[in-house]
């Protein structure tokens, strides 16, 4: 082999070695970048507690206990995941569940003093969510109760407990099947009474009915700032059909029907 051919061979070998090293480093870089992205995603999801309830089964517990800003748990592959736990996060999570209502919100609460929750209820009503609230008669208009403020809005129906025993429930039903059926009946009745709508041409075709999974939140928590900030409280959130049906039945036993349905 002459010197010229040897130089070509050496140059080719060097080029192959350099190229292999470049590929190796590029693979390592993208692999580490992917792992970092996945880790960041897990951490962000764990700490943001973004609630997504659309058509998904829900089984959750919200605990208001001693503040513990952050704790680390072990997961497979020896990875540490940081979970945020604070009263602020839990309040945010509770309100996210309430805000997820798309058709109806039935509330049975001994006490409502939280201005933040009251504002969310008003916003739901403004979005045509049908809101019904049952509260204890003794606590309904005792300051700092938000009931008087809520009764100022025609799209929010409030009733005080008519029974002699204490109404000490703390639960709400979001998009309950019976409540949605009732809302549909009310809407159909209103449209039947609307004589002008019967003569409107080119009726807009009704949109396809979307599947909505209802759920219930129940526990020791009153919707009060005191409870969320200072007390030890717990809230169970579930879309279990049997449990949901029982809570809807209980709500209907307390709600005195006023609107003509049928």
TrEMBL record:
GO terms for cellular component: mitochondrion. GO terms for molecular function: RNA endonuclease activity producing 5'-phosphomonoesters, hydrolytic mechanism. GO terms for biological process: lipid catabolic process; piRNA processing. This is Mitochondrial cardiolipin hydrolase. Residues 1-19 form the signal peptide. Belongs to the phospholipase D family. MitoPLD/Zucchini subfamily. It comes from the Eukaryota. PANTHER family: CARDIOLIPIN HYDROLASE, MITOCHONDRIAL CARDIOLIPIN HYDROLASE. InterPro entries: PLD-like_dom, PLD_domain. Residues 94-255 form the Phospholipase D-like domain. Keywords: Hydrolase, Lipid degradation, Lipid metabolism, Signal.
């Amino acid at each position: 082999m002459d010197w010229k051919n040897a130089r070509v061979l050496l140059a080719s070998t060097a080029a192959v070695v350099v190229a292999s090293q470049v590929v190796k480093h590029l693979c390592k870089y993208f692999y580490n970048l992917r792992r970092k992205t996945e880790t960041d995603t897990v951490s962000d999801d764990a700490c943001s507690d973004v609630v997504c309830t659309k058509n998904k089964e829900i089984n959750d517990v919200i605990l208001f206990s001693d503040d513990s800003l952050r704790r680390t748990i072990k997961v497979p592959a020896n990875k540490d995941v940081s979970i945020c736990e604070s009263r602020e996060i839990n309040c945010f999570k509770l309100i996210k569940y309430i805000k997820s209502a798309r058709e109806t919100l039935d509330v049975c609460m001994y006490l409502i003093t939280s201005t933040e929750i009251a504002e969310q209820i008003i916003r739901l009503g403004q979005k045509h969510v049908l809101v019904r609230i049952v509260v204890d008669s003794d606590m309904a208009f005792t300051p700092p109760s938000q009931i008087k403020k809520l009764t100022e809005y025609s799209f929010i129906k409030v009733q005080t407990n008519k029974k002699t025993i204490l109404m000490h429930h703390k639960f709400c039903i979001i998009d309950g099947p019976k409540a949605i059926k009732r809302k549909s009946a009310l809407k159909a009745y209103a449209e039947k009474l609307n004589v002008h709508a019967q003569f409107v041409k080119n009726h807009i075709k009704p949109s396809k009915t979307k599947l909505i999974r209802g759920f219930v939140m129940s526990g020791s928590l009153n919707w009060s700032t005191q409870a969320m900030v200072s007390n030890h409280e717990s809230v169970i959130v579930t879309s279990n059909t049997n449990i949901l049906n029982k809570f809807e039945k209980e709500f209907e036993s307390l709600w005195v029907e006023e609107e003509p349905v049928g």
